[in-house]
Each structure stands twice: as structure tokens, then as C-alpha cells.
Amino acid sequence: MIRNPILPGFNPDPSICRVGDDYYIATSTFEWFPGVQIFHSRDLANWRLLTRPLVRKSQLDMRGDPDSCGVWAPCLTHDGERFHLIYTDVKRYGRTTVGGASGASLRDFHNYLVTCETIDGDWSDPIHLNSSGFDPSLFHDEDGRKYLVNMLWDHRPGRNRFAGIVLQEYSPSEQRLIGERTNIFAGTPLGLTEAPHLYKREGYYYLLTAEGGTGWNHAVTMARSRNLRGPYELHPQTYILSSSARPDTPLQRAGHADLVETQDGYTYMVYLCGRPLRNRGRCVMGRETAIQPMGWAEDGWLYTYDGYGLPALGIDNPDLPLAPWPPTPVRADFDGAELPIDFQWLRTPEPETIFSLTARSGHLRLHGRETIGALFTQALVARRQQAFCYSASCAMEFEPRHFQQAAGLVAYYNGNKFHYLHVTHDDQIGRHLRVMSALPDSPQADAFTAPVPVPEGRIELRAEVDHERLRFAWRTDGEAWNWLPEQFDQSILSDEASAPGLPNFTGAFIGMACQDMSGAGLHADFDWFDYRERDYRADPTED
After folding, report:
1. Would you say residue 536 has pLDDT above 80?
2. Measured between alpha carbons, how far is 531 from 543 in angstroms, rounded to an integer?
3. Neighbouring C-beta atoms of residue 122, cutoff 10 Å
4. Exposure winner among 36, 154, 276, 487, fewest CB in 10 A?
5. Is residue 21 flagged as an active site residue?
6. Rounded Cα distance, 160 and 432, in Å
7. What is the mean pLDDT of the chain?
8. Residue 122: left (phi > 0), alpha (psi -120 to 50), or beta?
């Protein structure tokens, strides 16, 4: 039994591709570097994070990209010779104007193509395709020609911002789009038409799109045509998957889908979804990726097996030999020359400016840079939250000399939503720790707990998360944990907790950070980082 989501806690916008007996899913990474996450499976039930292909400055530089911008909606395909990866780098989303109205009519989306003969090899430098909208996808037709589809952004006053799906041919030999673009699908009254994928089956071109926005009204829309450029007729049910009319469904926000066919000819759909906390309406695991089987009916249209178009929480395993992967180690000791694959950092393609794994053997050294939440050079290395309940801890050596220097353990969503247990220094108190919280839905933008004096030397920091509850603790080597008395609201690290007009797409992270706002670059050394999924615990302080 596959217990959806199949990629818990990982970013959404899934694109799936099969090559032989291997399945790959690419998902968005937004402002986190390296860009794009590619997962690997041989049975559609067991998945491992295999690679992040955008690793060079020439491929991706997100310094200055706003929160939740950067890499959106990658599309991974294979044409029989090589892999093709399409992605958007969003440089401007817009802003919130006085009174809370969105002033986001002008946006910058740049769409690129990289290729590689192997999935985990050295991917090419990017080819810029267009900047007309986002969610690009590459379709390989049976005659060998290739076409790009993407949503079209219309900034003009009085126009529908989501102006439809445009198609244009791509020439591999010229490495550019050729011919005129055609608007092949204007969308349905639900609106917010995006995330197009094209397929060909039994003489029809099938167009899959997402509509209704990435929140509670999200839906998967299907249309088809005998002609690539249309006109496209709508599916008899219009929306082949959605949870918008069923708030009792465990998987909400279902949409942004892609299709894959197994070796035996069965069709599966991957899509993004969210699992809201009971009675809170917030998805602390962010937008996740789920999978379920679909069936082609006699009328030539695709349906869910129950016929109701609802996302399924659990499905039978596909008729494929089970192929589990070894479990991921719970502790990262930072003994290698590269970060463990679970970890990422923010925006910069020059990681040597913010961290080092060689400056001190067996340690991750973070160089204190800009403020936490900065858009350019922020020394924050973190991994995704992948369970509703988890324990995270680290061992740190850091000797701040004044209040502008800080380092520690952070539960982070973006620059406006985090809880940061940090060690710093004060002239009166000396070395101490406290928690700074950035609160997105409070008149008070940030809040600080009372300072707690701590001794010099090595210190261990700990976070315990249980659904919407977060507790912090600290200790010196070999001592008992000292629990801070406060309980923090983990649910603010969700898409739903936000100010109007701002994008919130990334999901929650837990990791290590270091700042030196004086510009001196004081470093912090982390010996290890531990992340363990846990069962529900009424009192995390019991151990």
C-alpha cells in the first residue's frame, strides 16, 4: 500500500518521467540552492532523493530573488536520447500595496532548458527560452518535433493575469523557439490556468493544466484536440482531480499534475497536495507530492478509479517488483567534502562565501554574513521537515563578542516566518541564548524570549516538533537538557500563515544559521546535525 504523499514534506509541482524501468520525479526548490530536486524510484512506492542538477552559477543565480520565488515548476522529459529539464527562475513576484491589495501586475519569469545524457550527470548550461509566463513544459511529438507550452502572463489593466496556455515550437539545432506562439487554451471559469503538460494518445493531443490557484480551490483540468494547436474540448467532468468540494478529504489542495505510463501500460498521476492540521487549516508539511492510478475509459478520457475525481490517501502498490532504498542516516557528521544531499542553502551559487566543510575537519563552518531572512548572502544551511513530529539537534561552537553576532538552530519557512534559537552576546548579560520569532500573522512583526545565560564553549541545541507545537532546549556536553518554558507555534511555518499579497510556497525547514551584522564574518562550527522522525509525544521533555 502506498500511503500518500509519496514525497512527504518535499516541494510540489511534480513532473514525472519514466526511462526503461526507472521513474524520476522533479520538483520545485524555489529560493533554495542547488536548484530542482530529482527523485528516483523503480516501483512508484519507494523513492530516494537522487540529485539536484542546477549546481553552477551559469545555471542558476538567485541572489535577490524574493521569498518563494526562484525555481518554479520544473518539467523533466526524455526524448530517447537525453533528458531535458525546463525550469523557471522567478526574479520578481510583486508586492503588497497600502490596504493589503496586491500590486503584483509586473512580474519577471525567465524560462530555461538544460539537458544531460544521464539523470545524475553534469547538466548543460541553460538555454533561455522565453519570459512570457511560468510553468513551462516541453512536449516531444511523434514526428520528432518539440514544442514548449507555458502559461501566459498578462499585466495589462482589466485583463486576466492568467491569459491562457501558449505553444511554440522549439528547434534543437538552433537552440531557440521558432515560429509564432499560439494561445491554445484560455482556461475555464475557475481561472488561474497554469501548469500545462501535453501528451499524445490514439490520435488525440491531451492537455493537462492546473486551475483554481495552488490553495483550497486547486484542480486538475483536462482537454483534448485532434490538432496540436487546437481547438481543445473539455473533459466531460472538466476537472479530473480536485478536493475543493470535499473539505473532509485528508489530501487537500490537489492539483498541478503530470502523467506517467508504466511498463505494463497503466497510467499514474502525480500531483501536489497538502495535509492540513486538524482544526487549524494549516499545512505545516507544505505542499507535498502524491500519486494515484488513473484509468482511460471507453470514451477516450481519463478518470480516477472511483469516478469521483478525488485524491486518494492510500492506494495499492503498482504491479512492479518492490525496490526499497536504504534508510537515510539520522545524523550528519560533516566528515565529507560535500554536504549530505538532504541539506540546502539559500540563493547563492557561491557556497564558499557562506560555509566550508574543509576549514575544520569534521565540522560544518558557517561564516557569519547578513541578517537571517536576507535575500543575498545568508549563512543558513537546512533540510526539509518531512514528518509532523520530529526531533532535531546539533552541536555548535561559537564565541560571539557582541550583540550583532549570532548563531544557532532555526525552524525556518522564509524571512518573515521562523523561530530561531540562537546564541549571542550582550554587554550586561554576556554569552546567552534566546529565541527570536518572526510572526507573519501578528501586529508584532518579531518577538524575543528572555535571555538565558549560558557558559562558554561547546553547546548542544534541540528542537522538538509535534504538529503545531514547537519546544526548544539546550545543554552542555553530557548534561541534562534545559528546556525553555515557552511553547512556540510551529503552524506559522506554513503557506497559509502569511500576509496578503506575498507568495508562500516553500515549506518548512530545520537547520543551522550564523549572522555577523558587524561585517567581521565571525564563524560558527557545527560538529553534527541530527534529524529523527518521531511518534506523537505529549511531553517531549521526558527524555
Report:
1. no
2. 16
3. 10
4. 487
5. no
6. 53
7. 94
8. beta
> Which of 89, 194, 464, 468 is flagged as catalytic?
194
pLDDT of residue 290: 97
359-410 pLDDT tens trace: 999 999 999 999 999 999 999 999 999 999 999 999 999 999 999 999 999 9
Name the amino acid, one letter, at 319: D
* Residue written as grid cell 519570459: 131
Please choose, from the candidates 4, 7, 3, 6, the residue with its C-alpha nearest in 3D space to the C-alpha of residue 507. 7
Domains of the chain are 2-315 (2.115.10.20), 331-542 (2.60.120.200)
Upper half-sphere CA count for residue 506 (Cβ side, 13 Å): 33
Task: Round to whole Å and give the CA distance between 525 and 14.
Answer: 36
Minimal CA–CA distance to 483: which of 540, 529, 431, 437?
Answer: 540
pLDDT band at 538 (very low <50, low <70, confident <90, very high): low
Residue of 13, 31, 65, 288 with catalytic role? 13
Residues 6 or more apart from 279 whose CB is under 8 A from it?
A: none
At residue 353, φ and ψ (nearest 5 deg) are -80, -15
Pairing of strands 83-92, 233-242: unpaired
Cα separations in angstroms, 304 against 45, 94, 254, 267, 275: 18, 37, 13, 10, 20
Alpha-carbon distance of 237 to 301, in angstroms, equals: 10
- CB 423 within 8 Å of CB 454: yes
Catalytic residue check, 135: no
How many other CB atoms sit within 10 Å of the CB of residue 374? 17
What one-character-per-residue DSSP string does 359-384 give? SSTT-EEEEPBS-TT-SS--EEEEEE
**pLDDT tens by residue, 429-452:** 999 999 999 998 777 788 999 999
Contact 409, 528 (CB under 8 A): no
Q: Nearest to residue 23, comparing CAs of 327, 321, 462, 406?
A: 321
Res. 527 pLDDT band, cuts 50 70 90: very high
Please report, rounded to a whole number, the percentage of residues in the chain having pLDDT higher than 70: 96
